Structure formats: structure tokens, C-alpha cells
Amino acid sequence: MTDSITIQELLTTAVIAAPLVTGLVEVIKRTIKLSDRWIPVTALIVGLLTGLVIIQVSIAGGVAGLIIGLTSVGLWEVGKTSVVASKKQ
Predict the structure, then answer these.
(1) What is the mean pLDDT of residues 46-63?
(2) What local confidence, expressed as pLDDT, does residue 13 receive?
(3) 54-57 CB contacts, 8 Å cutoff, 24+ apart
(4) Are residues 65 and 48 in contact, defined by beta-carbon separation less than 8 angstroms?
(5) What does the DSSP 8-state code read for residue 3?
């Protein structure tokens, strides 16, 4: 395995891992009765750890993990907004 990771590899990993992180955060939320206001922070932490584990323990892995966490927060917000909008109709 080479030490250099391309942006394409980082983003591909982020796109694949973000739904998994979203699911993990939902499990954490339901298990420990986590408030909705802590979801973004939890997603960033889980995403960071995921990036460090999946990619490598390095700055690139950390950056990928933050991208994964932020993408996961975006997915969660879109889902939440969609559910609220559908309930109003």
C-alpha cells in the first residue's frame, strides 16, 4: 500500500462511509437517549474515528473522517427536513 492517498480516494471513501456513520449515530442516539442538538458533534467524532480507521491514522485520514462526519450530518439534516415536510402535508 502506498503512503499517498488521492483526493478521489478520500472522497470515494467519504461517500461510501457517510451512510454508515449516519446509521451508527442513529444507533448511538437511540441507545443513550442522545439529544438532537448533539447529533452533529457525535457525527463528526464518529466520522473522524471512521476515517482514521478506514483510511489510515494520519492527517489525510483525519481530513477524510471530518468529511465523512460532515457528509453524515448533511444526510441526517436532509432526512429530518424531508420527514418534517411530509408530515405537514
Answers:
(1) 85
(2) 81
(3) 54/13, 54/17, 55/5, 55/10, 55/13, 56/5
(4) yes
(5) S
